[in-house]
Sequence to fold (668 residues):
Amino acid sequence: MAEIVLKDLSIEFGAFKAVDKVNLTVKNGEFVVYLGPSGCGKTTTLRCIAGLVQATSGDVLFDGQRVNDLTASERNIAMVFQFVSLYPHLNIRENIIFPLKARGIPRAEIARKLDWVTGIFNLGDELKRYPSALPPGARQKVALARAVIRNPAVLLLDEPLSAIDEQFREEMRWELGHLQRELGVTTIYVTHDQREAMSLADRIVLMSDGRIVQVGEPDRIFLEPENVFAGQFIGSPSMNLIDLTPVDGGLRLGGSNVTLTPASNLIPEWAVASRRKLKLGVRPLNVHLVEPGSDPTAFPLAVDDVFSVGRERFFMFSIDGVPYQGVDKRKTTGGAANAVHFVPDGLLFFDAETGLRVTGDAA
Amino acid sequence: MSTQSHTARQAELKRQSSGRLMIFGFLSPTLAILLFMVAYPIFSLVYYSFFNFSALRQTTMKPIGLRNYEFLLSDPQLWERFVFTGKFVFICVTLQMLIGIFVGYQLQKNFKGRDIVFTALMMPMMLSPVVVGFLWRYMLNSEWGIVNFLLYSVGLPKVDWLGQANAALWAAAAADTWMWTPFIILLATAAFRGIPETIYEAAEVDGASPTYKFFRITLPMAAPVLFIALILRLIDSFKQYDLFVALTGGGPGTATETVSFAVAKTAFSYFYTGEASALAVILLVIIIGLSMILVRHLQKLGERY
Fold:
């Protein structure tokens, strides 16, 4: 177990800045998930912590010790890779005990640890088989068993579940979270799947273009995104983003003729008072379709389409040709429903120029 | 429903049989050539091996059963040929595998000028064995060869490389190794480079030292390809003939005659066609045995990966 500190960490490949001055402290035993789109630098950061990629500048500290100059095998880490990295010529048993054998651990202890780890992962029946005979999910399970067998100080996981079937992924995700809490090992997990991040993380580190956008507990990132990127990246379906233009006594909603006023309880006084261009962020789950006149805060907007995804019903509406999405919570379908209601608590305001979230306190 | 499945089955059968005809059509030219070029010679080879027969006197052809084989297998001179061939094969294959794997491992890494070095190293393999034989014969000439010149210039005694049985064996092995190590290098490099980088990264994270990685990851993962290379070299050096014709002419005396050399000599110098056929059959059996190991191994490979 270890505390990991990244200090002004930069990693460059030629002229390309993969990671740009990143600072982060991962507490002992914490489960941190790096989340971000492809190419944002999250995997590169992880590989740098592992010792597989050299930092261009800045430091990586394990428990206060600078480890930049240590090779991956000298750092007490274990890693599970995105794609299969099991040794194809060794059976499952040999794969799992490889890290112990490579370090010259006595046989009796290897046998003891193997028993322990096969128990956890329920791999007893697979030990004599070869990796190619196992489905992808089981292979990642073996990779995980190989990672934890020697009680590493740090467990690094690089999109370990992305190559696995949906069904098995849920199960593995649950097991992984459970295992991490049980072992209490400091864990850094890289993914582009926000559901994995939301369900596993103690804290999420949201990255974009080599920089950290926001660090925080999953709920906080969801409810209080620091900027437009954080707001839109997290949450599915994605957050609606609508321009607000200041007009007399209120803010005009996009290119529509709807003006939101503080009187309607939808927008706060300060937003109108600031008289600057804003962007309204509202998640589809806070946008509802209602019968006209049934809700005084609802306003008429053109509804383009209503469709179902499983048990949920969504609808599309557009403002000035730009499509947006909401959730249709009415009990019955059909009827003349073309009034849209925003849940007041679910509205976020972003500065139109900087993209940063603005609140009444700041203004 | 049942009629439908019946017609479907009929269509399937029709499709299959026309497919089979098509396959046979495409195969028949090759089959004809194989029959003419391989099956017929092998058949006549085995046939002649049961006769006291010389190609020079076609009329006298006496069936003698297995006596050609009896004679050959009880001939101490032939056993000497086998022992020499065995020594030659062992030295060649060992040297070629060791050097080939070592150089191949160096060449799997990317460095500047790698392609040029690689191409240059492949050159000996492109030459004809006879050319290689003459080349080395001149280099090893006891009077004016460059090898002895170099030895002499550093104060060492000249060696009669091709005039002594043991030295000639090593000289031939050196020539064969010079020519064929590139083949091992080629295959070993390809095999080493085929190992995915993530496997090495995983091993690095798992705490494997470079030596441990080489012996537990690199070699075993390249082993299937290396094994094929080994068997191919084994078969090839076992039937080595042309190199010896050019390099030593089988001499001194008969000291560097391989089994293949003996076959050629019996068949085309002495024209003991029956006896030569029997010897060729023995050689064939040994080589088929080696090939079967190869084929079986290739099949196993297909199952595992």
Chain B has a mean pLDDT of 87. Residues 74-304 of chain B form a domain with the MetI-like fold fold (CATH 1.10.3720.10).
